[in-house]
Amino acid sequence: MKDPEPGRGLDVATLQRRLAEFAAARDWQQYHTPKNLVSALSVEASELVEIFQWLTPEQSARVMSDPETAHRVTDEVADVLAYLLQLCEVLGIDPLSALDAKIDRNERRFPAPEKP
């Protein structure tokens, strides 16, 4: 059953389970190899880029103010996230832990300037 308030009570594991159940119900798991998922992720990211491709920086900052464009952006973001979460599931990567560790490394690699 869908959550009555979108975004409420959702977590990565729940979304990954829903994606796995969706694929299993259609017998698509056979196609969800790391190679295929990375390819699909790249295609969906490119579709997101396409929306912004010829916009000025100012237009891109206002992209969500147009309902039709906002819907397209939201759908492409969802597609990118779906394929990324499926890839993480197949490879056994905890995406939140991976991101947390990457932020830690970046904080060490690029320390913030000290304030005078």
Structure report:
The chain contains 5 helices and no strands. The protein is mainly alpha-helical and 116 residues long. 67% of the residues lie in helices and 0% in strands. Helix 2 packs antiparallel against helix 4 (67-91). The chain starts with 11 loop residues before the first helix and ends in a 7-residue tail after the last helix. It has helices at 12-25, 34-52, 57-61, 67-91, 95-109. The protein is globular, with a radius of gyration of 18 Å.
Quick take:
This protein has 116 residues and is mostly helical. The protein has helices spanning 12-25, 34-52, 57-61, 67-91, 95-109. Helix content is 67%, strand content 0%.
Would you list the SSEs in sequence order as H and E? HHHHH
This entry's quaternary arrangement is single chain
Strand content: under 5%
| Number of separate helices | 5
Low-confidence stretches: none
The major β-sheet equals: none
The helix/strand class is mainly alpha
Termini Cα gap: 54 Å
Mean pLDDT, rounded to whole units? 93
Q: Whole-number radius of gyration?
A: 18 Å
Helix content: 55-70%
Shape: globular
Number of strands: 0
Task: Give me some keywords for this one.
mainly alpha, about 65% helix, about 0% strand, about 120 residues
